[in-house]
Amino acid sequence: MQRSQRHRRKPRRLILIIIAILLIIMGVRHFSSTSARLKSAWNKIIFTSNNNVSIAVYSPKTHQIYTSSNAPQHKFRTASTVKVSILAGILAKQQSPLTSHQKSLATKMIEQSDNDSTSELFEDYLGGKNGLQQTFEKFGMTQSQANSSWGLTVTTPKDQVKLLNNIFYKSKVLSDEERSEIRDLMGNVENDQAWGISASSDNFALKNGWLNYGKDEWIVNSIGYVKNSNGTDYTIAVYTDKNQSMAAGQQVIEQLARVTKPILN
């Protein structure tokens, strides 16, 4: 009787092993297919651009970050996209809800991209350059360097996706309430700033940045989260510089956003 049970178990174990192998193979194929499709669509835009362009996208379906760039070693100035890091850093630092004054400043900083509110939060509550660098360390953003002039901080899209994933998915740094607070503000930016990664999407949260600065010419960036009508979602960050105009940077970002959406749908 015991031998019979053992013989029955072996085929079951074999079947389970085969199923596990098939699932792994299917997962690898799906990842490879998604990566190849994204790069094919992105590179037609990125490598025909005269600007420096870099993109990173995270898909919770594959648990992978996909990237492409025509300037792979380049670090981009954040401009106003750093305002998300500043808010996340303050919340992580004080580990308590924003005061009414901080809330007012944060609303202006994210929804209106108000620079005076940003500077007050940056200096008085985050701790300036050192506080921002500590924020990057908390979120594992190893390719970002803070600047005392917050808009000149440098980063990469992949680092920004790490931050976004802490806000829109899971975080060991931010509480659910803190994550929700940031998401709500990013989901309520003023209409004239709802461009960039939101192209062709109705359900999104974002923060954009733009700055005309020296040899970098027009710096135009867009970071955020997109949810498709079928429930799939992703975080995305696009950074550009050397643009001849703000409109040129916007155009490249929105082209990338439009080709990304159907592939991750």
If you had to describe this structure to a student in words, what would you say it looks like?
- The protein has 265 residues and is an alpha+beta fold.
- It is built from 8 helices and 7 strands; from the N terminus they run H-E-E-E-H-H-H-H-E-H-H-E-E-E-H.
- The strands form 2 sheets. The chain has a 5-stranded antiparallel sheet with strand order 2-1-7-6-5, sandwiched between helices. A two-stranded antiparallel ribbon has the order 3-4.
- Strand 1 and strand 2 (64-69) form a beta hairpin.
- Helix 2 (82-94) packs parallel to helix 4 (115-126), helix 2 (82-94) packs across helix 5 and helix 3 (100-111) crosses helix 4.
Please outline what is shown here.
Helices cover 51% and strands 18% of the residues.
Low-confidence stretches: none
List the total number of helices: 8
Estimated share of beta-strand residues = 15-25%
SSE succession: HEEEHHHHEHHEEEH
Helix amount: 40-55%
Strand order of the largest sheet: 2-1-7-6-5
Structural class determined from secondary elements: alpha+beta
Mean pLDDT: 92
Name the quaternary structure: single chain
Q: Looking at the structure, what is the overall shape?
A: globular
Number of strands: 7
Q: How many angstroms separate the termini? A: 53 Å
How large, in whole angstroms, is the Cα Rg?
21 Å
* Biggest β-sheet description: 5 strands, antiparallel
Summary keywords:
265 residues; five-stranded antiparallel beta sheet; two-stranded antiparallel ribbon; globular; alpha+beta; 8 helices; single chain; 51% helix
